[in-house]
Write a structure and sequence with these properties.
- The complex is a heterotrimer of chains A (255), B (226) and C (62).
- Chain A has 255 residues and is an all-alpha fold.
- Chain A has helices at residues 5-14, 17-24, 27-49, 63-90, 93-125, 133-154, 158-190, 205-237, 242-253.
- Chain A contains 9 helices and no strands.
- In chain A, α4 runs antiparallel to α5, α5 runs antiparallel to α6 and α5 (93-125) runs parallel beside α7.
- The longest helix of chain A is centred in the middle third of the chain and has 33 residues, at 93-125.
- The mean pLDDT of chain A is 88.
- Chain C has 62 residues and is mostly helical.
- Helix content of chain C is 74%, strand content 0%.
- Chain C is rod-shaped, with a radius of gyration of 24 Å.
- Classes of the chains: A mainly alpha (255), B mainly alpha (226), C mainly alpha (62).
- Chains A and B meet through α6 and α7 of A and α8, α9 and α10 of B.
Chain lengths: 255, 226, 62
């Protein structure tokens, strides 16, 4: 298979944290702006314009933050698993830096999805917590995130921590579908499916367009946060290089 | 395929070491029995209350006692430098890992499985579930040891990695727990348990061919960077 | 507009506390994720700057 030349060039450039640091700097304001506009539009539409759900009333409006958070929680873990593979196979330093930066952000989105789900459950199911299949899988995902964060903090040497976290992220990624299917199967064995929240046959466009907007907005803000965080990790890890030291001196001479 | 000498050498050495200290071998088992004793005292000694819980209690106790034995799985090798020798050895590290895990399972998972019918009777486990649950444990405990080995290898260089190890490993144990307990439910309901046992067997096969590589990778990271 | 008045928008037919607390929490999480790297970066610049000044003291005395 022949890989197109520009992709190969991009791949080699990604091997340089400095290139990453300098290239992504101008992206940040655009990502932030895009995220704020998309999420703002989605949230306003969802909160004020979308019609109330015929069963759940206005509490369904939580969907516009709950579902994006849950989607991002899963996407972020996939990103980390991919970074783990890239780190172990190609030894790309940048992958480890993204792995470090993304973990707490993914954990925060997972916790957000769980908490908003619980708050949504109170008026809808009449209880804060139900052992619903999605809820349970999300809780286990949170534990997987906490494990990766804990492992990184426990291992003092960055290189050892990076590769160990990469292995753990890959093991987790392989296990996520297994966990998800086993939990799904177990809980459907036990409960009648009265607790299904999001399985509506069809949502009118006035409900799903804002959802799409806020999911896209969440993605933009997620990339914004991860890029920012990765850039700081780049500086910390590369602090012995001349370019970082020059950068620090430049920043220090600014008022 | 010829099994390299590293496997048999490691197997004999670990076996001899384990037999020389039977007390260490018995500790996780004693813990297993102890946890199971706590349930009738903590919940209720009534068999009507215990019967529906029995399979779950057996499995959770098995999970915890497996976890208890994991921390020391590679620790001593690392402290005395044997691990470095194994990484540098000509034969792949995977074989030494497999031998170590096999000995570990023979010392913990297997006796635990053999004890399960007796303890199940003490917990009023319904009779029709007794053998399916035992079969489930026989297939499931190797998965626990294999997955747990990954966690043990990742935390081998930590002084006190016990709590972190639990955090890393317990979420991965969940599918095994679910399948193992559902075997009992199906048996009690008079449904066939073979499909779920087959899933456990498939899980064990999958773990057997993948986990040793993850363990070997994690151990060589610990040696190279430690 | 789906709501008749602003107060109806705030109370959301009794579901107001649930809805607004979720949106508020989301805002907090997004803000935290966005601002935390900035704090970490400023700390790094301060500490690394001090480290570099220690290593190569200024040539000319003023």
């Amino acid at each position: 298979m022949k890989v197109p030349a520009p992709l190969v060039r991009l791949w080699h450039r990604l091997g340089s944290p400095r290139w990453f640091f300098e290239t992504t700097a101008p992206w940040l304001p655009w990502l932030l702006g895009l995220g704020v506009v998309l999420l703002g539009a989605g949230a306003f539409w969802g909160l004020a314009l979308a019609p109330a759900d015929y069963l759940q009333g206005n509490s369904f409006r939580i969907i516009y933050v709950h579902v994006p958070a849950a989607i991002l929680a899963q996407s972020c873990y996939m990103l980390m698993g991919t970074c783990g593979v890239v780190l172990l196979v190609w030894r790309m330093k940048l992958a480890d830096m993204v792995l470090e930066a993304a973990a707490p952000i993914g954990a925060s989105f997972t916790a957000l999805a769980l908490i908003t789900g619980a708050v949504w459950g109170k008026p809808t199911w009449g209880t804060w917590w139900a052992w619903d299949a999605r809820v349970t899988s999300m809780l286990i995902l949170l534990f997987l995130y906490l494990g990766i964060i804990g492992l990184r903090q426990a291992l003092a040497r960055p290189e050892a921590a990076g590769r160990a976290c990469a292995i753990l992220a890959i093991v987790g990624l392989v296990n996520i579908p297994i966990i998800k299917y086993s939990v799904d199967w177990w809980l459907t064995l036990h409960q009648p499916s009265t607790f299904k929240l999001t399985e509506k046959p069809a949502m009118p466009p006035s409900m799903w367009i804002p959802l799409l907007l806020s999911v896209l907005g969440f993605y933009a803000l997620f990339v914004w946060s991860v890029l920012q965080s990765t850039r700081v990790v780049v500086l910390e890890r590369e602090r012995r290089t001349a370019w970082v030291q020059n950068f620090v001196t430049e920043q220090g001479s600014k008022p | 395929m010829k099994i390299p000498g590293l496997f048999w050498g490691q197997f004999r050495r670990d076996g001899a070491l384990a037999l020389r200290q039977p007390g260490e071998l018995a500790n996780p088992l004693a813990f297993f029995v102890l946890v199971i004793t706590l349930f009738p005292l903590g919940v209720s000694p009534e068999s009507a209350v215990l019967a529906p819980l029995a399979a779950g209690v057996l499995w959770i106790a098995a999970l915890l006692s497996t976890l208890l034995g994991l921390e020391g799985l590679f620790r001593r090798d690392r402290d005395e430098g044997t691990l470095e020798q194994l990484v540098l050895h000509g034969d792949p590290l995977v074989f030494a890992v497999l031998a170590r895990l096999l000995v570990h399972w023979l010392g913990t998972g297997l006796p635990l499985t053999l004890l399960a019918p007796v303890l199940g009777a003490m917990l009023a486990l319904p009779e029709e579930a007794r053998w399916p649950v035992t079969a489930g444990l026989a297939l499931g405990t190797p998965i626990l040891v294999l997955l747990g080995g990954v966690g043990a290898a990742l935390t081998v260089s930590l002084r006190s990695g016990g709590v972190l190890l639990a955090l890393l490993v317990l979420p991965l144990f969940i599918p095994v727990l679910i399948l193992g307990v559902s075997v009992a439910e199906l048996a009690v309901a008079g449904l066939p348990t073979a499909p779920v046992l087959a899933w456990l067997g498939a899980g064990a096969a999958l773990a057997l061919v993948t986990a040793p590589f993850a363990i070997a990778g994690a151990l060589s990271i610990a040696v190279e960077t430690g | 507009m789906n709501f008749e008045s602003f107060s109806a928008f705030l109370t959301m037919g009794g579901h107001g506390p649930y809805v607004w607390s979720c949106y508020g929490l989301t805002l907090l999480v997004l803000l935290f994720n966005g601002l935390a790297p900035g704090r970490r970066k400023r700390r790094f610049l301060r500490e690394q700057g001090a480290r570099q000044r220690r290593q190569e003291p200024p040539q000319e005395h003023t």
